[in-house]
Amino acid sequence: MSADTQQRTIRCLVAKVGLDGHDRGAHVISRALRDAGFEVIYSGLHRSPEEIVQAAVQEDVDVLGISILSGAHNTLVPKVVDGLREYGAFKDTLLLVGGIIPEEDEADLREMGVAEVFGPGTSTDEMVGFIRENVPER
Amino acid sequence: MFDPDDLERIREGKREWEAETVAPTVERFGERRDAFETDTGGRAVDRLYTPADVADLDYESDLGYPGQEPYTRGVYSTMYRGRLWTMRQYAGMGTASETNERFNYLLEEGQTGLSMAFDLPTQMGYDSDAGMAAGEVGKAGVAIDSLRDMETVFDGIPLGEVSTSMTINAPAAVLLAMYVAVGDQQGVPREQLRGTIQNDVLKEYIARNTYIYPPEPSMRIITDVFAFCAEELPKFNPISISGYHVREAGSTAAQEVAFTLGNGLAYVEAALEAGLDVDEFAPQLSFFFASYNNILEEVAKFRAARRLWATLVEERFDPDESASKQLKFHTQTAGSTLTAQQIENNVVRVAYQALAAVLGGTQSLHTNGKDEALSLPTEQSVRTALRTQQILAHESGVADTIDPLGGSYYVESLTDDIEAEAREILDAVDDRGGMRPAIESGWVQRRIQDVAYERQQEIEDGDRVIVGVNEYRVEEDAQDADVEEVAEEDERAQTERLDEVRAERDDAAVEAALEDVRAAAEGDANLVPPLIDAVNAYATTGEICDALRDVFGEHQPGL
Amino acid sequence: MTALVDRLLAGEHRALARVISKIEDRAEGYRDIVAALHEHTGDADVIGITGSPGAGKSTLVDKMAAAYRERGLSVGVIAIDPSSPYSGGAVLGDRIRMGSTVGDMDVFVRSMSARGSLGGLSTATTDAVRALDAFGKDKVIIETVGAGQNEVDIVRTADTVAVLVPPASGDDVQMLKAGILEIADVFAVNKADLDGADRTVQQLREMLREATVPTGHHGVDVLDGDSENDREEAENWEPPIVETVANRGEGVAEFLDALADHAAYLDRSGEREAVERQRYAEEIRTLLRTDLQDALDAEIQRRGGIDELARRVAARETDPYTVADELLAPIESCLDEESATR
User: Fold this and answer.
1) Residue B120 and residue A70: Cβ atoms within 8 Å?
2) Is position B535 within any domain?
């Protein structure tokens, strides 16, 4: 017998990778996701790709949002993707990147499995909507 | 300032005007909005300001004269009629030699001061070959791994004739040591070196987050730099107490003033505790603010900050020298107001922000390139940004008289309001034991994050119009800016140069110098002299910062 | 489902993470998973850390984890934030302070929020501890804010409970009396380098002396008469007070020693078994209560909902006792049949 009411909650990891310390966007997005009813785990600053992978795997998040403003995305994002694959977590984690990403890099990031790149001026509503529509089935 | 009878007549007149002239119009046509507010503070803006709004203003004690306390109208007696503000464009990218080229170009173009940006590994005290540096070398600024890089940056630039501003904080003492070492090599007497290091670590914990050590030892490094500069580099500003990043993290104008001046007070207190005399170093303190789009609010903010600093220093430290109460500041136009959409619009935003800074009496100014929302600015956009300042200086006429908005009923009223609000915030800070405890508990950060979140919601709800973003949009190719990028090979070249330095130097001398740094850190001796010895031995930025990490530990932030 | 359990038992991190998600979500089949894991549990040492916000819990837990790792032990951490705003969402920031062991997968940190029901959180915590225990963690640390009864229930899942006290005004220490004092097996006065730390230690000591009730969270409500008698002859555990400066790692070794002393005491005195049985009794009761409640809620729903039943009572068509009897009758008759056939 199981009369338990299921309460699936979307879990997100908002991650700051690399040395870039600008966290205004990460904080605003964390709050917006929280207000949308999601559970948000904030990584804190200056994280290495390995640390982000560890957090994403252990927390079993549905969404991994990487905020990166320093321009180091080409170096750091592939390492995160590789790490997620290593733990078998890549397939059912929605990977998002927010920050200043040149167009040609954006294409590369999508190629390697980033679901969406949110540039400057993106509304948090847009992001919440995207997550609701694209969160992986489990 | 006004005759009481006149004021009464004016109040009566305004009431009549509101009732008889305004009310019927508002009834028929309404106004654009139900309520008007200032940019970030949510401060109500009245329809019309009159002498009644500044009835309590005492000209002599509240405004006074330029170059005299309380410096509301300006810190110098002739202001821009004597000398224009320093046009200082923040630059630094890729390698040391590229930065050297950019500096030479800017000096030829008529720029009057150099401003140096460092890449993140340097700002965090890592060498270019450190694990955490991967992908970040030469981005957002120049990589300085050792004195060798600093020599390259200033090759052919006589340090006795330029003033150099360095945006460096946690490892500021190390970079200052390198600058002094290059000056020594050029044979420039130390007392002729001019410039500023940012060296403001408290705001790093609040907003910018390029910290290394915990607050306590960080404050000690800072006061050591104060003492060294007071002794040996009298023309060098040992700190630039920065509200810019606080504001960019989302604060209101009043919070920007309050938290920045609060940090300033904390530094003065730390220096006094370290045994310095207030008049020894206070005149060398400099500040750094942001300039936003709401021109009149920004002008009022700069004026309020000047008056409040003079008052606070007087109240708390009672210095002998007037100069100890002068708030001198650099301004940068607000990077976060630049939009990735319709980037040409940013030229206009930057121009208004620059106008506000000049009307507010800034001592130096950086104007952003229009493309900085996307990447490092191109040479062309840097030129336009500099031309914006030159047009202000030479064509607009705003530099020809001092504090031209002084006496505006609105601006004076707003100046009073911002000052009063900043004071209230500072009282709340004092209740928490001062800025350091208020920062360590996260109170300051949460206040700012609250405003940032509200502002984002206003934009998304359409309550706040951002031209080209949530209104007046056009279809455009995404990011068609001519984006300048840092080549990946630069990272490799930089680490190779670092290897060369390590191969050529005397390792025993490096180890001995680093040991001296550790010993100084453990004891009470001033850190700067052993740092100069260490950079002269070509110890690297990362090695020196690690030596200090050994003694001081690293800062662990919370949420 | 069994595949997931097998993968967890085989040491796959991802499977452990997914099991905890299913526990939190009350996802279909989670009960079978937890049931399957139970026989593999019982080896982990479960430690609860509680205290007011800002007491330095996360920092201390970070240093604890690092110290256990140095001793070659694997660690699981459940960091609980019981605050839940109206939206049901939460921002969980405890991981940020877990800096000493990042990159070390043998420290498994999981953040949990209340999801609108603190009662449910305590069940979920118990089950998540099981998952970590079955996975093979040597030490499982539960970290939560010690604010009210529900948080106390959460932390009761642990064998040893440590309460963190920051140096503070007397008022705050007074506040501890309400509920927290009784559950503490060990006190840590953290941030002991700050002003007022000595006074806080002093006040705690006095308070413990004054306490007439047996302290230690296992001291009350012992399961049966036998163990109560045992206990009177057995030694009494007196909670030690340890001073720590967690962010510098000072006092952490002494703190761990105090925890180990308490664990040894539990074994020596037989308390561990007694408490374990008490805990399982409580768990069975809780499960039955909620399951029965859920079953009844479903039955009420089938009969038109509670409002409809209330309307009929108000209209004098029926009365509350008859309604209750009607709802319970099928369950009771089932149970009667069951016992008749046994």
Assistant:
1) yes
2) no
Cα pseudo-dihedral B139, B362, B335, B375, rounded to 10: -30
Return all residues near A68 (Cβ < 8 A) that are at least 6 apart.
Answer: A16, A17, A18, A20, A76, A77, A97, A98, A99
Q: Would you call A3 and C115 a contact, using CB atoms and an 8 Å cutoff?
A: no
Q: Is residue B269 part of a domain?
A: yes
Which residue in A13, A16, A24 has the most chain B C-beta atoms within 10 A of its own C-beta, making it the best mutation to test that interface? A24
Q: Which domains does chain C have, with CATH numbers?
A: 41-269 (3.40.50.300), 285-340 (no CATH)
Same domain, B202 and B348: yes
Does B176 map to a domain?
A: yes
Identify the domain containing residue B161 by its residue range.
65-458
Whether B390 and chain A come into contact, CB under 8 Å, resolves to: no
- Dihedral-angle region of residue B135 (phi above 0 means left; psi in -120 to 50 means alpha; beta otherwise): left
Q: Which among C20, C23, C81, C111 is the top mutation candidate for probing chain A, defined by the most A β-carbons within 10 Å of its own β-carbon?
A: C111
* One domain, residues B23 and B70: no
Residues B126 and B223 in one domain: yes
Question: Is the per-residue pLDDT at C220 higher than 50?
Answer: no
Q: What is the pLDDT of residues A1-29, one digit of tens each?
A: 333 455 678 999 999 998 988 899 999 99
Task: Please state, in angstroms and rounded to a whole number, the distance separating the CA atoms of residues A64 and A53.
Answer: 9
| Residue ranges of chain C whose CB lies within 8 Å of a chain A CB | 13-14, 17-18, 20-21, 24-28, 30-31, 85, 87-93, 95-97, 99, 102-103, 105, 108-111, 113, 115-116, 120, 291, 294-295, 297-298
Q: Do residue B558 and residue C96 have CB atoms under 8 angstroms apart?
A: yes
Tokens of B257: 């003033």
Interface touch C89/A7, C-beta < 8 Å: no
- Set out the domains of chain A in order of their start, with CATH numbers: 3-134 (3.40.50.280)
Q: Consecutive 10-residue runs of chain B (559 residues): their mean pLDDT?
A: 92 96 93 85 88 94 96 97 89 80 85 87 96 88 95 95 94 98 97 96 95 94 95 94 96 97 97 93 95 96 98 97 96 94 95 98 95 79 94 97 97 96 97 93 93 92 91 76 61 93 97 97 96 98 97 82
Residue at a domain's end among B59, B86, B104:
B59
Q: Which residue of B has its CA nearest to C91?
A: B559
Neighbours of chain A (3+ CB pairs under 8 A): B, C
